[in-house]
User: What shape does this take?
Amino acid sequence: MNGNTRAVVVAVDGTAGSAGALRYAADEAGRRGAPLRIVHVSPTYVPLTPMLPYVPDDLTAAGRAVLSEAEAAVSESSEPGALRVETALLSGGRVSEIVTAGDGAGLLVLGRETRHGLDRWLLGATTAAVAAHASVPAVAVPADWTPTTTRGMVVVGVKSSHGAATLLEHAFAAASARGATLRVVHAWSLPDPYGDRIEQRTHAAQWLTASRMQIDRLLDPLRDRYADVPVEVVVLHEQPARALLGQADHADLVVLLRSPSTLVPVRHLGTTARALLAHATAPVEIVPAVGVQPATRSTADPVARPVATSTSAPSSSSNG
Assistant: This one.
């Protein structure tokens, strides 16, 4: 094991929803030769009843039990001594504690969001909030993920040239590590349904040609460095989230870029990333745009522009 390799951090909550994340994190740590750090955030207060509150000792004991069970699950599924496993019991706000725990890690792994309805509205969506604020790549994993769930494909959604170098570098590395094909997907549509129908009918071929040419230019600097990675380019006339959800059914991993925000420290994920985090059948990794300046009007253009003059801007938000 390389002692300089950054840890893979996985957050567990003791529910079945984080089982896939734990398996994925162990698999990634083994692939990277990195330590696996399992973290659990214990609440400071649980509103059971006014007459029967949980005391801190109860919460600490419950948190330690969650970590012990997770560590045991990793030990049962790994070769003895194959992984160096660490655990950390944290206390406080779930999102902020997980984000802090991930600082400096090689990867932050989360389970798919399990809260729904009123509980989710009151307490918030942990997975999306962590992915929006993490300083390192964060991946959300379906509960039923197993190491045998392999399709030989990594999918990356490309919205524009802005930040694409960071995104594609990460996607190529992920495909190379898995011995997988990299499928680069760009989906476009116009927000106005009439304009979209007209553009599709009259200029679909030009959209396809222009998009492929620009994507090829983005890929050229990386093809030689990752000569072992077969590359496919797919350009679709489709709403981006719907297109990528369909692609996720054939992928081992979907990679998206979290675009930098001009409203620091306010950060958010776009509709495409939120849809993929909630519904994709494959793990979805959100890559922060480290060192990339927020897009301006001139740098936020999609990969391809409409050939004809239109009153509607294209929707091509294959990134987060």
